[in-house]
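User: My collaborator sent over this chain with a note saying "see what the structure looks like." That's all I know about it. Can you take a look?
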Amino acid sequence: MLFNSYVFVFAYLPLVLAGFFALRRQGHRLLFVVIASYAFYAYTELWFPLLMATSTAISSWAVCSSSATPRSAPAGFCS
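Assistant: Without extra context I'll predict from the sequence alone. Here is the result:
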């Protein structure tokens, strides 16, 4: 799916925007946008979300295992 494709402009984008603004809590919005992003990348190739999840897991592990965790990570992120 490309950003200038009809599927993106007339189906994906309106659904994501409607879902985003329908949710009130910031945490729910964040989760919705992450899931929508994974769906966007999975539309082209099914292994892209696996690559993204692996990259996210490695980055999270690196932040939580660093010695500067108390200052650099958000509260409750590594617990």
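A starting point for your reply to your collaborator: The helical segments are 6-22, 26-44, 48-65, 69-72.
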